Amino acid sequence: MAYTQLSQISRALVLGVTDWFTQNFDAYPVQYSQYTKTITSTLETEKYDSMANLAPAAEIVEGANFNYGSIEQAYETQVKNKKFGGGIQFTVEAMAYDKYQLTIEAKGKELVHIIRDREEELGIKPYDEAFTVNLADGVPLCSNTHPLYNVPGAFNDTLITGAITPDNIKSATQQFATHKNHQGKPFRVFPDQLLTHEYNMITVEEVLNSRNKAYEMSNTENKLPALRPAYSRYLTSTNAWFLRDTKIDHAILQFYQGYRNKMDWEEDFDNKNLKGTVYFLGNSAGLPRPGIVGSAG
After folding, report:
1. Is 109 helix (H, G, I), strand (E, B) or coil?
2. Alpha carbon of 185 to those of 158, 182, 274: distances in Å?
3. Which candidate among 50, 110, 207, 293 keeps its CA 20 to 30 Å from the CA of 268?
4. Of 26, 22, 24, which is closest to residue 105 (Cα–Cα)?
């Protein structure tokens, strides 16, 4: 096992600066809240169902019978919550010798740092895997072949390829009109967010603010819909981008207790050391619902 020992504390004290320990441990800004919905969970495994299949209401003439349908499950996504954590350990002597609390400050910031980092990775995971990992309906989140229950040959999602340009955003925006519900009829979904890697920030701002914009869906004004940009450094591909309807949840970051700013302590009297740990329980899930188009570039 690795411990923080007297020699390390002594060196920090000789340097006489706390920056030696803490300059890289500042907390990250929270990114995942821009493109996920955080919910509290007490279940180890959760299921999310898409239920529909009733026909629209119809006019009933006097004396005629009602048409009855049944509610049937269309898609199911299962989420398995997991535990993520880390810790630091050091000798009792080192703790007593650290009168300026250099290690205390450093270890507290760093443990929150590593938890925040993992939260961000889990939050972006459904989009990072949007083109490669199958969801509960057997195809990735960004696919042209999400099957519709009881609607043979109809799909409830669309996919665009190409770079972030006004014309491609125009095409992706128009594709939202092709999203279908379980009756094979259009969903009322409209994009309000553009999510991509922070590497593309300048390009996105130029596209969304350019005078040379593609037409909106109604083709009545020479402008794009009002898209709120969101960026993440945790996307593996810097070319990937997504148009989303944020009223429909696609990624959920789940917590039992959230991360802890203060550590849990355990003392090992035999080895004369202390252990500090920090953890949270959670996972993220991509739900197979309409309201998103994406491009892997």
Report:
1. helix
2. 15, 7, 62
3. 110
4. 22
Polymer length of the chain: 297
Fold (CATH) for 6-18+32-52+72-295: phage-related protein like fold (3.90.1690)
- Residue 80's pLDDT is 80
The pairing of strands 264-268 and 273-282 is antiparallel
Give the model's pLDDT for residue 26: 60
Contact between 288 and 135 (Cβ < 8 Å): yes
Half-sphere exposure of 184 (CA within 13 A, CB side): 7
Q: Where are the domains of the chain?
A: 6-18+32-52+72-295
pLDDT, residue 62, reads 92
The residue that leads in pLDDT, 58 or 70, is 58
Residue that is written with structure tokens 């252990």 in the block? 275
